[in-house]
Amino acid sequence: MESIIFYIVFGIVCIHFVLFVFFTEKMKKLYPQQYQELGEPSIGLFSTKRYKAGKKFSTYLRKREYITLDDSNLVILGNMLLLSKVLFYFGFIALIVTFFVL
């Protein structure tokens, strides 16, 4: 049971990172000014600059500021990012519960 939940959570994490890349690349093309204001978030090795950009981007998503953008595909990608984040947390909790209960 744990292995099934693990693979589901792993799949959700992979999907989350793919959505992150699509969202940031599309935002970089369509809204370069806002992308630069966020600190140009990216996936890569740890650095203070990337950490700060990630925090700004996370706050940007949490406050749903992307709703004001004109591109509906970007809004859908933002909503999917938030949904995948919530699904990851539920999956992680389910994994912990099954590990300790079973």
Distance between the termini: 9 Å
The average pLDDT is: 82
Q: What spatial form do the alpha-carbon principal axes imply?
A: elongated
Biggest β-sheet, characterized? Answer: none
Give me the strand/helix succession.
Answer: HHHH
Uncertain runs: none
**Rg result:** 15 Å
What is the helical fraction, as a range of percent? Answer: over 70%
Q: In percent terms, what proportion of residues is strand?
A: under 5%
Number of helices: 4
Structural class comes to: mainly alpha
Q: What is the β-strand count?
A: 0
User: What's the number of structural domains?
Assistant: 1
Describe the structure.
The protein is mainly α and 102 residues long. The chain has one domain (2-96). Helix content is 78%, strand content 0%. The chain has four helices and no strands. The chain has helices spanning 2-30, 32-37, 48-62, 72-101. It is elongated and about 50 Å long. The protein starts with a helix and ends with a helix. The model has no long low-confidence stretch (mean pLDDT 82).
